[in-house]
Write a structure and sequence with these properties.
Largest sheet: 9 strands, mixed
CATH architecture: Alpha-Beta Complex
Order of helices and strands: EEEHEHEHEHEHEEEHHHEHH
Number of domains: 1
Oligomer: single chain
Structural class: alpha/beta
Low-confidence stretches: none
CATH superfamily: Spore Coat Polysaccharide Biosynthesis Protein SpsA, Chain A
CATH class: Alpha Beta
Length: 261
C-alpha cells in the first residue's frame, strides 16, 4: 500500500525565447493569442491540476502570460533542458507530482492531460511518466522534429531517438511510438533528475527523457488519444495553423481557448 498522501498534481509549462530550433516561438501569434497562452489555457481547461504555472527566464514571456493573469515563476537562464527549468520552478510549488507540458504543445487536448493525471493516481509511488501516441505515417519515422521511442509490452519506454528510418517496421509501426512533450514526475523523482549527470544520448539528441533511461530508471509510457504536432520549426507552425482550422476536435478546443478567461 502506498504511503504517499493523496497526489497533489501541479502543471508547469517551461518556455524560453532562445529555443534552439525556433527562437521566439512562445510568442507566435495564433489567432490573437501568443502560443504560450494557448498552451496555458489548454492545460487550465483540463481542470485536474492544483496549479498551472509557466516557468521562464524571459521577461517577454512573463509579461505575455501576466497580461492574461496567468501565473509565472521566473527561472535561471542557464538551463539547457526544459525539465531542469521545471525542477527549479517546482521548488516554489506545494505539490507531490508535476506534469511538465512543453510550451510548444499547442494542440494538446485537455482530455489527454487527464490520462496523465490518472496514470499518476493509479501509481502514486512511481517517479517518471511520459505521454506517447501511435505513429501515423512512415514520414514520422524520419522527421527529426518528432521524438520517437520504443516501448515494451507493458508500455515502458526503453529508448528514445529522433530518427528511426533504419527500422523496417510493419504497417502498425510497433513497437515504436511518438513521444510527446508531456512528462510527469513525482516531486522526489524530479529533484533526483536534476542531480543526475547529463548523458550522451540526452546531449546529442536533446531529449530530456534519455537522462532517465540512461541512468537505468523506469519511464512509464502513457498512451494518449492523438499525437498532434508541437511547433519546432516554421513548417510545423504552418501545419498547426491548418489543423486548427480543419480538425473538428481542435476547432472545438480552440473556441474554448479563445473564449475562456
Amino acid at each position: 500500500m502506498s504511503l504517499l498522501p493523496v497526489p497533489v498534481i501541479a502543471a508547469v509549462i517551461p518556455a524560453r525565447m532562445a529555443a534552439s530550433r525556433y527562437p521566439g516561438k512562445p510568442l507566435l501569434d495564433i489567432q490573437g493569442l501568443p502560443m504560450i497562452e494557448h498552451v496555458r489555457r489548454r492545460v487550465v481547461l483540463c481542470k485536474r491540476f492544483s496549479e498551472v504555472i509557466v516557468a521562464t527566464c524571459d521577461k517577454e514571456i512573463a509579461d505575455a502570460v501576466g497580461n492574461f493573469d496567468g501565473k509565472v515563476i521566473m527561472t535561471s537562464s542557464k538551463h539547457t533542458m526544459a525539465t531542469d527549468r521545471v525542477a527549479e520552478a517546482t521548488q516554489h510549488i506545494d505539490c507531490t507530482h508535476v506534469v511538465n507540458v512543453q510550451g510548444d504543445e499547442v494542440l494538446i487536448l485537455p482530455k489527454d492531460l487527464e490520462c496523465m493525471v490518472e496514470a499518476i493516481k493509479d501509481d502514486p509511488d512511481g517517479r517518471y511518466w511520459n505521454a506517447t501516441a501511435l505513429i501515423e505515417s512512415t514520414d514520422e519515422l524520419t522527421d527529426t522534429a518528432v521524438v520517437k521511442c520504443v516501448v515494451s509490452k507493458s508500455e515502458m519506454v526503453l529508448y528514445c531517438a529522433r530518427d528511426f528510418s533504419h527500422l523496417k517496421l510493419q504497417q502498425d509501426f510497433e513497437p515504436v511510438r511518438k513521444i510527446l512533450g508531456v512528462l510527469a514526475f513525482s516531486r522526489e523523482g524530479l529533484m533526483a533528475y536534476t542531480q543526475l549527470p547529463r548523458t550522451p544520448i540526452e546531449t546529442s539528441q536533446s531529449i530530456d527523457q534519455s537522462r532517465v533511461l540512461e541512468h537505468d530508471l523506469p519511464l512509464q509510457g502513457v498512451r494518449i488519444s492523438a499525437g498532434y504536432l508541437g511547433i519546432n520549426n516554421k513548417r510545423e507552425e504552418q501545419s498547426v495553423r491548418r489543423i486548427l482550422e480543419s480538425d473538428s476536435r481542435q476547432k472545438s478546443i480552440l473556441y474554448q481557448t479563445l473564449t475562456c478567461d
